[in-house]
Amino acid sequence: MKILIQLHYRRVLMGTLLYGLAGFLMFQATTPEASMLQNVIISLVFVVIVAVLGFVGVAVFPSFRVVMELGGVVFLFSAIMQNIWLVTTIPALPDWMITVGYLVSFALLHQGIYGTWWQKVGLGVSVRLHSRFSTRLSPSKTWSRLVPDEHNLEAYYTQTLRGFDPVAGIENRYIQKIGLGQGAVLEVQMDITECTPNKRFAYRFQAVTNQRNEEFNRGTCVISLAETPDGGTCVEILEINEKLAVGQAVLMWIDNLGAQVGASAVAVLDGGRDFTLLGKLRRDVQALG
User: Fold this and answer.
1) Contacts of 186 (CB under 8 A, 6+ apart)
2) pTM of the complete model
């Protein structure tokens, strides 16, 4: 439960607040005879239930996690409409029409916030991801798992590295190939700017893509290692993406991706179970082959 709270508190907190406000307004609209105190108590109980279901739901059904925040927005809007005098005077709509309305609203909201149109129109923002964690492995072993090696792709901790090929004629430039399943790969150009074994690894990155999207998904990353008193390693990862599509940046923030990266790396390096969204993604890729 602790790891779920650390990784998903942003989404659950946001969703709980939205559903809680929606619940309060709905109770107010459907039970006008109840006192304010009664509605507040009922709403608080509702909020607790939503929070618990939110943590469980995100853990069990991570592919549907956006229902937490987007569903909250839809239900809050619906609750506000119920409390508008003009709407309450209109005859009640059939249940099927209400259901269709919810689904259509959710789809439109999903497209509006997380859709690819942000990238198509060139709208992006800078994103900074910071991860800090400790592992039982020594700095040398941690280095061998976190830093890609063209001669030992299998050692890379994600198990999705399909290539790390030097670019002929350009010193310290590599093409990193990340497996997406069924033979598909994402190619990322890496220009190594610093490489101090077992201590610091820094590079610039640029996704290899079409000309329209080349301004996106590029930036810098620094991996710093420091030995701990017990012989383990303290790791700090700082990634700055100079321009991400707005919808992608919003999703990364709500997903708390910096914490996801750290928790995932610790689980893999220390031989534990990876419960993060990144762990699920890697398992899906491996299942696809």
Assistant:
1) 177, 178, 180, 207
2) 0.87
- Annotate 157-176 with b (16+ C-beta within 10 A) or e (fewer): bbebbbebeeeeeeeebbeb
Single-letter amino acid, residue 149: D
Q: Taking residues 221-234, what's their average pLDDT?
A: 97
C-alpha torsion angle, residues 67, 73, 76, 80 (rounded to 10): -150
Cβ–Cβ contacts within 10 Å for residue 58, how many?
Answer: 22
The Cα–Cα gap between 21 and 19 comes to: 6
Task: Give the 3-state secondary structure of residue 162.
Answer: strand
Q: How many CB atoms are closer than 10 A to CB 31?
A: 12
Interatomic CA distance for residues 186 and 204, integer angstroms? 16
Cα separation, 215 vs 213, in Å, equals 5
54-97 tens-digit pLDDT: 999 998 899 999 999 999 999 999 888 877 755 555 566 677 77
